[in-house]
């Protein structure tokens, strides 16, 4: 009987088996995330179809260019994660660490910019329930801002988790706990999570900020 | 995926982002086009970054299955909303 490599988990005999099982499990988890956000996207679409004018009023108050810059940050983070996965497969530990830290910094930049945007909206009285009185006349427009806050905050939570994952793995590689390329599957799965978070923003950005902007 | 293909994917993603922003600002009447731009971006991420093209058929089935359920959710709900008198 073949002796199992020490980095393989119990039921697996080969790295390819373990990689396939890990990818399948990860995609199943990502599918639940897609369905979770799918419901949010549906509610956004429903609002837009039911109260187009009120939503246009609310969308006119959103800072679309700032959020566009945030999109670019997240896409660049995704590129870094993909380059990191390549480096991990080749066992280039120092490059993996650098790219993980760069991705984490870009994710941190996204969160900082998002925080700045929330602060701006707070000053304008747009955030629900707090601050001065809302400049939005229609109740449905104020309701759209609740939805915007819920969707973006849930997404920002995901970005925060992705940043922590990147930092944790960078520390693992540095401390020698995460041996590469033997355990390259782990950074690869974290990369998949990062790309999903990116993909959710790819849909959130146009559906919240860009569709139906008043001329 | 080699680094050159990853960079090409990244360039495509930024190009589509620029297209979406330009459409939303310069031609608001055409803004539903941004959804097409977003769908193209998502495809690029799934094929270019998530390497779905190189994955086994079972994994591709799981990945596309999630979107199929979301499409069903949208289809049934919006069919009701859009056809209600």
What would your notes on this structure say?
The complex is a heterodimer of chains A (215) and B (85). Chain A is mostly helical. Helix content of chain A is 76%, strand content 0%. Chain A has helices spanning 15-50, 52-59, 64-89, 93-123, 139-175, 185-210. The longest helix of chain A is centred in the last third of the chain and has 37 residues, at 139-175. The mean pLDDT of chain A is 93. Chain B is mainly α and 85 residues long. Chain B has helices spanning 3-26, 33-49, 57-83. Chain B is flat and about 55 Å long. Classes of the chains: A mainly alpha (215), B mainly alpha (85). At the A-B interface, helix 1, helix 3 and helix 6 of A face helix 1, helix 2 and helix 3 of B.
Quaternary state of this entry equals heterodimer
List segments of chain A where confidence is low: pLDDT < 50 over at least 5 consecutive residues. none
What class would the helix/strand composition of chain B place it in? mainly alpha
SS elements, strand count of chain A: 0
Give the uncertain stretches of chain B in residue-range form.
none
Task: Give the terminus-to-terminus CA distance of chain A.
Answer: 71 Å
Number of helices of chain A: 6
Main sheet characteristics of chain B:
none
Helix content of chain B: over 70%
Radius of gyration of chain B: 16 Å
**Element string of chain A (H = helix, E = strand):** HHHHHH
The helix/strand class of chain A is: mainly alpha
Helix proportion of residues of chain A, in percent? over 70%
**Main sheet summary of chain A:** none
Any idea what the shape of chain B is? flat
Return the average pLDDT of chain A rounded to an integer.
93
Radius of gyration of chain A: 21 Å
Summarize the largest interface: chains and residue counts. A-B, 48 and 47 residues
Rounded mean pLDDT score of chain B: 94
Number of strands of chain B: 0
CA(first)-CA(last) distance of chain B: 51 Å
């Amino acid at each position: 009987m073949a002796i199992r490599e020490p980095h393989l988990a119990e039921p697996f005999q080969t790295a390819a088996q373990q990689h396939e099982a890990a990818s399948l499990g990860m995609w199943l988890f990502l599918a639940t995330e897609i369905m979770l956000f799918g419901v949010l996207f549906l509610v956004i679409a429903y609002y837009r179809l039911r109260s187009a004018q009120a939503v246009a009023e609310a969308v006119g108050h959103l800072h679309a260019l700032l959020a566009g810059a945030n999109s670019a940050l997240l896409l660049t983070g995704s590129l870094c994660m993909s380059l990191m996965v390549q480096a991990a497969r080749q066992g280039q530990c120092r490059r993996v660490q650098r790219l993980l830290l760069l991705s984490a910094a870009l994710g941190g930049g996204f969160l900082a910019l998002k925080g700045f945007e929330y602060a701006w909206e707070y000053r304008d009285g747009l955030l629900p329930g707090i601050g001065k009185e809302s400049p939005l006349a229609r109740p449905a427009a104020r309701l759209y801002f609740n939805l915007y806050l819920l969707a973006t905050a849930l997404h920002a939570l995901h970005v925060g988790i992705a940043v922590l994952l990147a930092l944790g793995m960078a520390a693992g590689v540095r401390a020698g706990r995460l041996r590469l390329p033997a355990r390259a599957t782990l950074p690869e799965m974290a990369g998949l999570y990062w790309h999903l978070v990116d993909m959710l923003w790819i849909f959130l950005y146009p559906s919240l900020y860009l569709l139906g902007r008043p001329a | 995926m080699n680094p050159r293909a990853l960079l090409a994917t990244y360039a495509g993603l930024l190009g589509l982002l620029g297209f979406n922003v330009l459409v939303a600002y310069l031609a608001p009447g055409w803004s539903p086009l941004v959804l097409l731009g977003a769908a193209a971006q998502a495809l690029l991420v799934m094929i270019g970054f998530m390497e779905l093209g190189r994955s086994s058929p079972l994994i591709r089935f799981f990945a596309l299955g999630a979107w199929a359920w979301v499409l069903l959710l949208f289809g049934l709900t919006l069919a009701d909303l859009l056809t209600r008198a």
